Amino acid sequence: MKIENQMKKFRKKEDITQAELAEEVGVSRQTINAIETGKYDPSLELALKISDFFSTDVEKIFKLKRG
C-alpha cells in the first residue's frame, strides 16, 4: 500500500518552502520533495512531526491508498 498525502497543500497554506519545512522537522529538502511527489513514504515518527508542525491530525495529511 502507498500513502497519499496533502502535505503540499498544507505547506502552501502556511506559505513556507520545502526547505523551511525540512528544517522544522529535521530532514532534507529532498526528503520533503520526495514525500510530496509520492516517491517516499515518511516514517511514523516523521509523519507525526509534520502533523504536529501543522497543528493537525496526522490523518488529515496522510492517508493509506488502498488497491
UniProtKB/TrEMBL annotation:
**InterPro entries listed in its UniProt record:** Cro/C1-type_HTH (IPR001387), Lambda_DNA-bd_dom_sf (IPR010982)
**SMART domains linked to this entry:** HTH_XRE
Q: Name one GO molecular function term.
A: DNA binding
Write one Pfam family the protein is assigned to.
HTH_3
Q: Which UniProt keywords apply?
A: DNA-binding
Under the heading SUPFAM superfamilies, the entry gives: lambda repressor-like DNA-binding domains
Q: Does the keyword Transferase apply?
A: no
List, for all copies, the residue spans of the domain called HTH cro/C1-type: 7-61
> Mind telling me what this protein is named?
Transcriptional regulator
Species assigned in the record: Candidatus Nanohalobium constans
Q: What is the lineage of its organism?
A: Archaea, Candidatus Nanohalarchaeota, Candidatus Nanohalobia, Candidatus Nanohalobiales, Candidatus Nanohalobiaceae
